Amino acid sequence: MQPRSRRRFLQTCVAAAAPLCVACGEKERAAGPPADPPAHAKGPQPAAEPGAPPSAPFEPAYLKLHKSGELKKRGEDLWKRMKPCKLCPRTCGVDRLAGKKGFCDATSELVIASHHPHFGEERPLVGRGGSGTIFFSHCGLRCVFCINYEISLEGRGQRRSIEDLARMMLDLQRMGCHNINVVTPTHYSPHILLALDIAAAKGLRLPLVYNTCGWENMEVLKKLDGIVDIYLPDMKYASGEMAAKYSSCAPPDFERTRPDVAETCSSSETYPELTKMALLEMHRQVGVAKPAKDGLMYRGLMIRHLVMPNRVAGSKEVIEWIARNLPKDTYVNIMSQYTPMYKAFDYPEIARRITRQEYEEVVAAAKDAGLTNLDIQG
User: Fold this and answer.
1) pLDDT of residue 29
2) Which of 44, 150, 222, 347 is the most buried (most CB within 10 A)?
């Protein structure tokens, strides 16, 4: 992510969400899987400029599975995992299909904060037309320092149907975006696949970017094989202790109102172990991310690591693990924009921005480890 403020962008988008989504119409906001789209619905063709693919025709990974019916089937399979919910590694076991809220604070009802061309993502995703970003409300990881806490922790957004989500994807394509970038997607992965199936039937041809915290359920991740074109995961921590400390911000009154969930849901202490497994699986599915001749990314794994104050993220260990276990030309964005937000000020060790020295020592460690495809800021 480029240094410009993602928080400023989100504030603008949230304010503009209602008028931007007028195209979604006033149809019923159904929570269940949508009806089949008409067989004759071909929809609009992809924008030629600036959202056009490279000279060789680009076909997104999900199109083949859409044509065979497998894309919709996988979406329906994931839908069933909400009863009881085991979409993310929390495996909180809540019956979200019955309207109950999981640890992520979401039911099965889709809530979206905004959709808009985003120009603050990695350059190969932004290009000239922007990354077609869809910000989903709620989150299963729930970091105390989250810069997007109004959306991910407070759940700010609007109720939408799966058909609305499909229309958003097509809107972003018509705007000239280069990809569909689903942000914090895990707890809404069934909705995304079902919407993608509808949008593909109507002409969606952009690559799908799965913009995740990295902490993924392996069974769910394997359902995404052949669907996701670009994985954009974080690798936040080297230490499970740090993950449990800073990424377990339970919803308000969680233990009182949902004691059964509080007792059974898994700790984010498993973050390093499960994220490493997830990154290896993502690499197996999509390989190394390298821009095409037009400078845009169409496929591959792009890892983000946020450098935090006082080395609490274990950045050197994270970098060394990537260098040992993935190709040396794996795309790694070493991010410098940590800003204490939300409850970060309750933790003195992370209640400040990072120093230049803290950032530069991580960059030096990456170069010493032999990583060659680095996105370095500042």
Assistant:
1) 34
2) 150
